[in-house]
């Protein structure tokens, strides 16, 4: 039986504005690349340093049909949704929200950032849901940095946000089998990162430069690895290398998307709009 060969494409992230007007660097969706199954979107938020009163976030907005992942590197963000979930994310924390049938969500810089300013840096990722789970009951998972496993080796550091490394498993329960690891490599260090063979994998540079397999990566560049091997080989250049690594098995299902809704057909997108306009996603309860 013939197997499909691994292919690696390097893309340069593009600057865009999201939410209330905050700047992000986007690997996709962009012209010519709408998604990388099962990952629908990957945005690097910042890094940006706000002055007092300058903080910008994403006020109340709907989602249906996928999962949103927020991972904070610097600063602090506050979340709340129409199902009564709320929390605060600090450096190293992760929020994994299954929007499923529909949710109204708000993501804003924390009160101290809004009032006094400060540095904000992180990632927003959308993971597609399979057709059978598109209308699942919404679910919210939030874990602090100290609850996520850290695996170290000679010149290597890795935080396991989703999946497993060296027998250390993240507490995050993913709907689609997904690996998400934040790695830091000292100059010349090497890390062999196991993933499910046949996954679509992403290595998103955060800082420095290095290689995945034999492909060079540097600032603002992202490697898209189709039909990835069972082990990703990451090696740092002389200045060290920091990256976010994602991997997921492709769903191979039709994708219909419009703004915050991702379904399988145009008719399902139209139904999502009707449900949202009819108030079926609920609203965020606030006391002030």
Overview of this protein structure:
- This protein is mainly β.
- It has one domain: Jelly Rolls (Sandwich).
- The chain is 6% helix and 54% strand.
- It has 2 helices and 24 strands.
- Strands 1, 13, 14, 17, 18, 19, 20, 21 and 22 form a 9-stranded antiparallel sheet that branches. Strands 2-3-4-11-6-9-12 form a 7-stranded antiparallel sheet.
- Strand 15 (164-165) and strand 16 form a beta hairpin.
- The longest helix is centred in the C-terminal third of the chain and has 12 residues, at 266-277.
- It is globular.
Name a few traits of the molecule:
single chain, 288 residues, mainly beta, Jelly Rolls, nine-stranded antiparallel beta sheet, seven-stranded antiparallel beta sheet, 2 helices, 54% strand, globular
Write the layout of secondary structure elements.
Elements: E1 7-12, E2 14-18, E3 22-28, E4 39-50, E5 58-63, E6 66-74, E7 77-81, E8 86-89, E9 94-98, E10 103-109, H1 111-116, E11 118-128, E12 139-143, E13 150-153, E14 156-162, E15 164-165, E16 168-169, E17 178-185, E18 190-194, E19 200-212, E20 215-217, E21 221-226, E22 231-248, E23 256-258, E24 261-263, H2 266-277
Antiparallel strand pairs: 1-21, 2-3, 3-4, 4-11, 5-10, 6-9, 6-11, 7-8, 7-10, 9-12, 13-14, 14-17, 15-16, 17-22, 18-22, 19-20, 19-21, 19-22, 23-24
Number of spatially distinct domains: 1
Tell me the CATH topology.
Jelly Rolls
* Oligomeric form: single chain
The counted number of beta strands is 24
Name of the CATH class: Mainly Beta
Structural class from helices and strands?
mainly beta
Low confidence ranges: none
CATH superfamily: Jelly Rolls
Distance between the termini: 63 Å
**What fraction of residues sit in β-strands?**
over 45%
Number of helices: 2
Q: Judging by the overall fold, what is the CATH architecture? A: Sandwich
Gyration radius, rounded: 19 Å
SSE sequence, one letter per element: EEEEEEEEEEHEEEEEEEEEEEEEEH
- Outline the biggest β-sheet: 9 strands, antiparallel
* Fraction of helical residues: under 10%
* Mass-distribution shape: globular
Global mean pLDDT: 93
């Amino acid at each position: 039986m013939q197997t499909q060969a691994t292919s690696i494409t390097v893309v340069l992230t593009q600057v865009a504005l999201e939410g209330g007007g905050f700047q992000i660097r986007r690997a996709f969706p962009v012209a010519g690349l709408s998604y990388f199954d099962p990952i629908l979107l990957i945005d690097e938020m910042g890094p940006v340093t706000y002055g007092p009163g300058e903080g910008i976030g994403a006020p109340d907005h709907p989602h249906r049909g996928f999962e949103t992942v927020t991972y904070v590197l610097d600063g602090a963000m506050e979340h709340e949704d129409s199902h009564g979930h709320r929390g605060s994310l600090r450096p190293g924390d992760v929020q994994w929200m299954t929007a499923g049938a529909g949710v109204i969500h708000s993501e804003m810089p924390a009160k101290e950032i809004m009032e006094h300013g400060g540095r904000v840096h992180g990632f927003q990722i959308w993971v597609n849901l399979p057709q059978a789970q598109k209308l699942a009951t919404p679910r919210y998972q939030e874990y602090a940095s100290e609850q996520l496993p850290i695996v170290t080796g000679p010149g290597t550091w890795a935080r396991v946000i989703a999946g497993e490394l060296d027998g250390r498993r993240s507490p995050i329960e993913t709907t689609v089998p997904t690996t998400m690891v934040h790695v830091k490599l000292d100059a010349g260090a090497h890390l062999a990162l196991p993933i499910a063979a046949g996954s679509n994998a992403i290595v998103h540079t955060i800082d420095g430069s290095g290689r995945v397999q034999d492909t060079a990566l540097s600032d603002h560049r992202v490697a898209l690895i189709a039909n990835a091997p069972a082990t990703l080989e990451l090696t740092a250049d002389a200045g060290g290398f920091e990256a976010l690594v994602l991997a997921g098995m492709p769903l191979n299902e039709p994708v219909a998307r419009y703004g915050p809704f991702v379904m399988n057909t145009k008719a399902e997108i139209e139904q999502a709009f009707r449900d949202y306009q009819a108030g079926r996603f609920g609203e965020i309860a606030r006391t002030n």
